[in-house]
Amino acid sequence: MKSHQISAIRIGVIGAGGNATGNAKAFLKYPGRCRVVAVADPVLAAAQKLADQCGAKAYSHFTDFLDEVDAVVISSPNFLHAEQTIICAAHGKHVWCEKPMALSDEEARRMVEAVNKAGVSSFVGFSVRFDPTTLKMKEIFDSGALGEPVSVWSRRLCYFPPEKTGSWRFDYEKSGGVMSELMAHEIDWIVHFLGEPASVYCRKASRQHADPRDNDHVWLAMAYPKELTATIEGSQMAPISDYYRGIVGTKASVYTARWGEKLEMVKVGTKTAIPLELGPVFPKHLHFLDVIDGRAKSVADIAWGSRIVHLSMQAIASAVNNRVVEIQPLSL
Fold it and tell me: Is the peptide bond before 280 cis (omega within 30 degrees of 0)?
């Protein structure tokens, strides 16, 4: 990736919802490095509200501000991510794309091609991997303190009321279901730890069946060498809320507690949970600025994101066809 030394990087935000607002405000913490200068949303009043908070200008369509920015933050509905990324890259803009990065392998391939052709920097907004508990878990995992990993798991249950969250979230073609909407985060951290699995097997359930790929609740098993298995359960239809992850090893196990607010380890032969001291949140937004300026290499670029998309799509194919799917590495 090129080194792009840009003074006071000008950022345009696509979208004006909660995610976009969080991203915009995060960039405001670095006034010496960047400025949020534009916000675009089809609901101009929403764009204006966020723009006012950032000292930016509001637009109803993002293409109207591309000449005014150096980088874009794509926080729009899922089904818009691919085309918006491709257009922004073609205009030479560095791209932060929220997950799910894409809703098909074809979309992901086109995004990778567009970013590579333009020579721009990219980052996919995975958050779970950069949480303090996950970062500490990775440190413990890499140290060998757990021994050989036997089981890696993640469970993330919540409830999305259809009448409150907007119809597009329950249209597979627009959201990808819970697999893309939430489980992309869980697949990301597991693949970051273990690499790509040899195969996947998935089952799913849904509240509606307009599309055979509809999924509101998923169970995913990812097979690795030496009997190692990673499992994910995720739901947007569970009236109970639950959220935790962990690793069982031959020497010790490590797991999150209290909705991921703390991390504990138990060594083999003991029954005592050892609280682990956590570090700070990884500064994703500062990292993106460093990537643009050539000070760092993106830790989760569009090419990486395409691998997570590929695994998500293979998992859905497994659930639809009720079969184990062998994973073939992507050719990027």
Answer: no
Whether 121 and 141 share a structural domain: no
- What are the Cα distances from residue 20, in Å, to 25, 40, 97? 9, 10, 11
Amino acid at the residue 76: S
Give the dihedral of Cα atoms 211, 212, 216, 220; nearest 10 deg. -150
Indicate if the pLDDT at residue 2 is higher than 70: no
Say which residues have a Cβ less than 8 Å from residue 31's Cβ, sequence separation at least 6: none
- Maximum distance among all Cα pairs of the chain, rounded to whole angstroms: 63
Residue 295 within any structural domain of the chain: yes
Rounded Cα distance between 246 and 232, Å, is: 11
Percent of the chain topping pLDDT 90: 90
Residue 109 belongs to some domain of the structure: yes
How many Cα neighbours within 13 Å face the side chain of 146? 21
What's the distance, CA 111 to chain centroid? 16
Is 65 a domain residue? yes
- Closest by CA to 172, choosing from 116, 236, 126, is 236
Provide the residue range defining the domain that includes 123: 9-127+285-300
What's the pTM value of the predicted model, to 2 decimals?
A: 0.94
Q: Tell me the two tokens of residue 72.
A: 């874009």
Length of the chain: 332
* Cβ atoms within 10 Å, residue 298: 20
Place of tokens 């894409």: 102
Does residue 262 belong to any structural domain of this protein? Answer: yes
Give the Cα separation of 45 and 120 in Å (integer). Answer: 31
How confident is the model over 93-120, as pLDDT tens digits?
A: 999 999 999 999 999 999 999 999 999 9
How many Cα atoms are found within 13 Å in the side-chain-facing hemisphere of 90?
A: 9
Tokens of 307: 């691998």
